[in-house]
Amino acid sequence: MTTQGEIQAAARMDGTKTDGVEEVPCLCPTHGTYIFKRLPGQFGGYLRPVCPECADKNRTDAQTDAERERTRTMQAWVEQRIGQAGVERRFQGKSLENYTATIPEQALALEVARRYLASIDDRIREGDCLVFCGAPGTGKSHLAASIVQGAIQDQQTAAYLSVYDLILIARSTYGNQRVSLKDELAALAKVDLLAIDEVGAQAGSEDGWLLSAVIDARYRRQKPTIVISNLAPKALEEYLGTRVMDRLCEGKGVVVPFTWGSHRRGNRLSRQQERAA
């Protein structure tokens, strides 16, 4: 084990001096020997030897801490501006691990979600979107909520909203002197990952243009969006429009159709059968 005396002795060893810069052999208790280029300091003194590997580690740790703090601050800002972050209480216990896949189509949907979450940093950086669409009660929200929660755990900012939430956010700006709709759209565009549920559940002029505006704002910032809808793929494209659908599918964007029956009805029928028996 290297003692402090040995370190100090090594630091005092004569070194090679070139143009006022002295190359001094030094000893780090963690990384071993290194050459320290000692420059004359202020008031005729000398700068203290610093192990370059220790300095790199300290710098990396500081950057990591700063990034984590930035993410926490941004997530708090998301919650304040958008009104909620992550997922609602019903889906907070959901994960990819407790998603039940009993048929090949469900297994495929689960695998798409797993791969997306496993590469979440790349997906967010490249702006790759997901579209979960099809019959109700098939686990679309379960998988989307799991991805959003996983993204937050990965130090990304994320939010899970319904179309109704978006409408309420837009309406809150009407006559508001402090916050404009443009401000809210900018806030929605800044979130690393945004999941929008109940797309197409209420066909109307307000939700149609609002969805297009949000998806377009995020597309221009290269931010990924997860769209969840009970519409079939063709009906969803008719609702959103070809331009919006193309943007959702750009790059490695994926449309996953959920074509099997509702698990809610299956659970209810199972309970009825148990009571009848």
Task: Tell me what you see in this structure.
The N and C termini lie far apart (74 Å). The protein is elongated. The protein has 11 helices and 8 strands. The longest helix has 31 residues, at 52-82. It has helices at 4-12, 52-82, 104-118, 120-126, 140-153, 163-171, 181-190, 205-220, 233-240, 242-249, 263-276, and strands at residues 16-18, 21-28, 32-38, 130-134, 158-162, 193-197, 225-229, 254-258. Helix 3 (104-118) packs parallel to helix 5 (140-153), helix 6 (163-171) crosses helix 8 (205-220) and helix 9 packs across helix 10. The model is unreliable at 1-15 and 267-277 (pLDDT under 50). The protein is α/β, with parallel strands linked by helices and 277 residues long. A 5-stranded parallel beta sheet has the order 5-6-7-4-8, sandwiched between helices.
